[in-house]
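HOLO CASE FILE
Compound: magnesium ion
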Amino acid sequence: MTVEQVNRIVAGDVRSAARLMRGIENGDRGAFETLEKLYPHTGRAYIVGVTGAPGAGKSTLVDALIAAFRQSDMTVGVVAIDPTSPLTGGAILGDRVRMQRHCTDPGVFVRSVATRGWLGGLARAAAGIVSVMDGMGKDIVLVETVGIGQQEVDVTYLASTSVFVLTPDSGDAIQMMKAGILEVADIFVINKADQGGALHVKMELQAMLNMKDSLPEERQPPVILTEAVNGRGVEELEGEILKHREFLVSHGGLVEHDRERARLELAEAIEGSLRDYISSGVDKASQDKLVEDLAQRRISPRAAAAELVNQLIRP
Ligand SMILES: Nc1nc2c(ncn2[C@@H]2O[C@H](COP(=O)(O)OP(=O)(O)OP(=O)(O)O)[C@@H](O)[C@H]2O)c(=O)[nH]1
Ligand SMILES: [Mg+2]
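Model generated. Tokens follow.
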């Protein structure tokens, strides 16, 4: 059954893909098993992260980018990550409405992901959904997230090109330095350039980028002004994304990035396997006893963990 589903997804079947995505979002074990089978068919999509403060215009920009990439004959997947409660759901609704004009285009697939229960579940679900779009054969996958460095939503490691969106008004530029975004963003966008003050922010940002002691062959991240609402500057942004891809390809950075990503995925998989192994391998009674000991402060969390692991390794 899953092999059939995988084949349908690889052939680009939207309903099968949507079903798998739903399963991933819900944390269904079966969905993750199907994802495993899809894995050999992934790795071809070019993944672009679009990050920035709430309301910076990321979704509007993504919508405009979809149009630009479609113009260039590329198929596009979009994963919008909403770290807020699924109860509020406002941003998701906004994203759907904003990107609706593409919903009849078979070359475009837009999906919003909201938090579901367990910690770290969002990032895992998002990574899974990106893989499904990759497996479907989308040329470009755009991943929209709010902020960088919020661990539970940080999927920046997935992206080969990271675009950071700021606006002329906010004190974003200063905040960014603190968050270390200067180091991780490949392209900077100052959106809402129609509001004025954008050039000033651009100069400020470029001055900061110049202060970075970078290696001579290292690439200086471009700073682009856009007006996402009317599409101004978006073609230039598309061009810079593709240029960055060429840069990575010609400098071996793409391979390096894939390797780094594989390393993270392996580490995560090991953690997951260990977690499963431990929770299935240790009988409930001894787990309950340790929990009780912990609650009563008779033992520290570290010591309790060591005891559990020891029971498993040397029974
Ligand atoms: N004036 C102006 N407004 C813009 C521009 N781009 C986006 N906006 C507006 O900014 C508001 C927020 O845009 P979104 O695209 O939802 O921003 P976002 O960053 O995706 O927001 P969240 O996903 O909620 O974090 C909307 O009302 C947009 O119409 C722009 O270039 N100029
Ligand atoms: Mg948005």
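CASE NOTES: Residues 85-91 have pLDDT under 50 and may be disordered. The first helix runs from residue 2 to 10.
CLOSED: yes
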